[in-house]
Design a protein that fits this description.
Layout lengths: L1 H40 L4 H8 L5 E10 L2 H5 L6 E21 L4 E12 L11 E5 L1 H10 L4 H13 L5 E5 H6 L1 E2 L1 H12 L9 E2 L13 E4 L11 E4 L34 E5 L4 E13 L2 E7 L30 E2 L9 E4 L8 H4 L9 H4 L2 E4 L6 E14 L14 E13 L2 H59 L1
Antiparallel strand pairs: 1-2, 1-17, 2-3, 3-8, 4-5, 6-7, 8-9, 10-11, 11-12, 12-15, 13-14, 14-16, 15-16, 16-17
Length: 487
């Protein structure tokens, strides 16, 4: 009996010790993990710096072009009918250059060089594939002169007719994306410049001309030193912390990171801001759902519909009306001010989350969030983006411009030209490296801590149960003894 009592006491003592140790270890372990991540996450850390300078994760730039099936009908006011073709895939290579640290304010300045290589194996066709689309240079000229006097419009129209330019044209994928020579632009722009219009447009035209083997400007960002919550946050872009494109100070703010890195210790309630040079503005992401990549648990963030809502549905977007009295329906962003006056309108692919009238303005749109939404899967402890898919659609606003004869019967619609998916996903080898360096130690600490708490609680509960059972048995034995003695 004494031996059993001794074992019971020791079990209780061990259980209490394990229980207390487990409870005490939780905040200590969290603090150790927090400090370790904080130490490693800054751009002063060698491993973080190396992966930041040259992203080890493959990046793909994929395009789908919209092939116009009925150009003759559209020229006479018909509803455009479009067929999606692609993808045409490129491997995107990035490398930080001209990197300079500024210890006085914990920032780093750099440019990011990018170049693209066509990947035939991942493409459904070649860059030489041809399709029918709108003559963007013609619509650009029409858009520039539409607010000018009649005689300027008539001069522009005469140049268009002299060049025998149709409002729709056949192009190869390569020409549309990377550019082709368009003498009409040069002649028209030169004349309009001589007449006093401040126009600066290259006669080598393409939607992404100038972006291959190039960069998108100077960045100055926080290194995360001293305050990890600011890790990667852009302080200035091209030496400014505001933009010149929009009509309100809020819309012209440069907010967030470049979308490849985020602060550590991400919470589901966080709003993640990203500055996009493609969009010439900052956007934001909110938590959507849990996700995983290569067995690693992640938080999926996406752009909510209100990011591209009209100012009527979201008054914060009033500043994206350019000019201030030209407000587009929900789902559209007028890019005219940051693309040399081109009637370029950005949206999500297939007009996802756009006004119904926009979607129904053309045939061929079938939006769904899984295929056409923009997502970022973030590892919450480190803030690392293990999967990102940025999806945009470039459209041209068709409209009738007085004195430009080729536009006089056009329907007033937003015509899709191309949509893209710029994506990156962590590889198995990088995921395994992450697991060994962080996830496995975290798991061991968590499992060990909660195992200690569980085992301690079990031993204490078992000891209490045994003690109570023995006490009840002693009382029962005592009553039986008293009953026997009484009889």
């Amino acid at each position: 009996m004494k031996k059993a009592s001794c074992c019971l006491i020791w079990a209780t003592i061990i259980g209490v010790i394990l229980l207390i140790a487990g409870i005490v270890v939780i905040p200590v372990a969290k603090n150790l993990i927090h400090n370790k991540i904080t130490e490693q996450i800054t751009l002063k850390s060698n491993a973080t710096y190396q992966n930041w300078v040259k992203n080890p994760t493959p990046i793909f730039f994929q395009l789908w072009v919209w092939d116009l099936q009925n150009p003759d009908e559209v020229k006479n006011g018909g509803k455009p009918s479009l067929v999606q073709r692609g993808p045409y895939s490129y491997r995107e290579n990035r490398h930080k250059i001209n990197v300079s640290f500024h210890d006085e304010n914990d920032t780093v300045t750099y440019k990011e060089d990018k170049y693209y290589v066509f990947d035939r194996a991942m493409s459904n066709g070649t860059e030489d594939d041809k399709f029918t689309t709108v003559n963007i240079p013609l619509m650009l000229i029409a858009n520039i002169v539409k607010r000018e006097v009649d005689w300027l419009q008539k001069i522009a129209d005469a140049l268009i007719e002299w060049g025998e330019k149709d409002v729709f044209m056949t192009l190869s994928v390569k020409d549309l994306v990377w550019g082709y020579d368009e003498p009409l632009i040069n002649k028209t722009v030169t004349l309009l410049q001589e007449l006093g219009l401040p126009i600066h447009i290259d006669d080598h035209f393409g939607l992404f001309v100038g972006t291959n083997n190039s960069d998108d400007g100077w960045y100055n960002i926080k290194t995360g030193q001293g305050d990890p919550s600011l890790f990667g946050v852009i302080q200035k872009w091209n030496w400014n912390n505001t933009l010149p494109y929009w009509t309100t100070p809020t819309c012209n703010m440069v907010n967030g990171t470049d979308g490849t890195i985020f602060h550590p210790f991400v919470d589901k309630s966080d709003v993640m801001y990203v500055f996009s040079t493609d969009l010439c503005r900052s956007i934001y992401f909110t938590y959507l759902e849990p996700s995983s990549q290569q067995g690693i648990d992640l938080y999926r963030f996406s752009t909510p519909p209100d990011v591209f809502m009209s100012h009527i549905d979201n008054p914060a977007n009033q500043g994206y009306c350019t000019p201030s009295d030209n407000c587009l329906p929900s789902g559209l962003l007028n890019m005219e001010n940051c693309h040399d006056g081109a009637p370029l309108v950005f949206s999500q692919p297939h007009f996802l989350n756009a006004d119904k009238a926009v979607i129904n303005g053309v045939y061929g749109m079938h939006p769904n969030i899984e295929e056409h939404g923009t997502f970022i899967d973030i590892e919450p402890n480190t803030g690392a983006a293990f999967y990102a898919a940025k999806k945009l659609q470039a459209n041209i606003a068709l409209e009738r411009v007085p004195n430009i004869k080729s536009t006089l019967k056009l329907p007033t619609v937003v015509l899709p030209v191309v949509w893209l998916n710029e994506s990156s996903k962590i590889t198995k080898s990088l995921a395994d490296e992450f697991k060994s360096e962080l996830q496995t130690p975290l798991l061991v600490i968590h499992v060990g801590t909660y195992l200690a708490i569980g085992l301690g609680a079990f031993l204490v509960l078992m000891s209490l149960t045994v003690a109570i059972f023995r006490k009840l048995r002693e009382k029962q034995y005592k009553r039986m003894t008293e009953y026997t003695d009484a009889n």
